[in-house]
Amino acid sequence: AMRLRVILLVVATSSLVLVSFLIPLAMVLRTLAADRAVSTATDQAQQMAPLVTTLPADSLRLTIDQINAEARTGVTVFLPSGTELGQLAPWSAAVQLARNGRSFTAQTAGGEQVLVAVQGLPGGTAVISIAVPTSVLRHGVTRAWLLLGAVGLLLLVLSVVVADQLARSVVRPIKALALASDRLAAGDLSARAAVAGPPELRRASAGLNR
Q1: Cα separation, 75 vs 181, whole angstroms
Q2: How far apart are the C-alpha atoms of 72 and 61, rounded to whole Å?
Q3: Which of 18, 132, 118 shows the shortest CA–CA distance to 78?
Q4: Which stretches in the chain have pLDDT values below 70?
Q5: Cα–Cα–Cα angle for 17, 20, 25, rounded to 5 degrees
Q6: In whole angstroms, what is the distance from residue 108 CA to residue 136 CA?
Q7: Which residues contact 33 (CB under 8 A, 6 or more apart)?
Q8: Which of 2, 19, 36, 170 has its CA 20 to 30 A from that of 55?
Q9: CA 189, CA 45: separation in Å to the nearest integer?
């Protein structure tokens, strides 16, 4: 019973430490994955800005369609004339705000939307919109979480092994002391307890032997 209590105590302590460490780390990994996806989309939109100002509408449409065919994000270009190129997307309030010359990131129902204002066109300001779905924002997060879970489980198993060895080292001298006590109580005056274990247990064994 004492051995089991020692193991349970170590397992409970190890579990608390692992949970307090792994859960914040998992949240940080998810945030980093989302930031990386948004940063990649922002760079892509900024690289497209010169194309919007130089290419004619037909060539720009073909370029955007090719980008959308190869990428997991959806690119839409809102021209000052009202023409919409690429993936169909609504003229939302965020798009209208970007037409005033602001570039920012907005949250949507399916993920996030990166909006980059492109100025310098004859008719006004164009807007490059890149929709980053939730699947892209959390790409690789599940695998990282599974890896963290496996590491946590391995550490928990190691803690059980260490706790078992610790419990054995404590319980074994106690059992020997109890056995020697039983033999003395039965009249075997030659019985002696092994002086081993923690200091308190060694003193008890030495006192019994005397």
Answers
A1: 83
A2: 18
A3: 118
A4: 1
A5: 120
A6: 14
A7: 137, 138, 139, 140, 141, 144
A8: 36
A9: 91
- The three-state secondary structure class of 181 is helix
Report the predicted TM-score, pTM, of the whole model to 2 decimal places.
0.71
Cα–chain center distance at 194: 51
Query: What six digits make up the tokens of 202?
Result: 């060694």
SS3 139: coil
Tell me how many degrees the CA angle 56-61-66 measures, rounded to the nearest 5: 130
Task: Determine contact, residues 29/141, Cβ cutoff 8 Å.
Answer: yes
What does the pLDDT read at residue 90?
Answer: 86
* Per-residue confidence (pLDDT) for residue 71, from 0 to 100: 81
Position 106 scores a pLDDT of 92
State residue 183's pLDDT score: 83
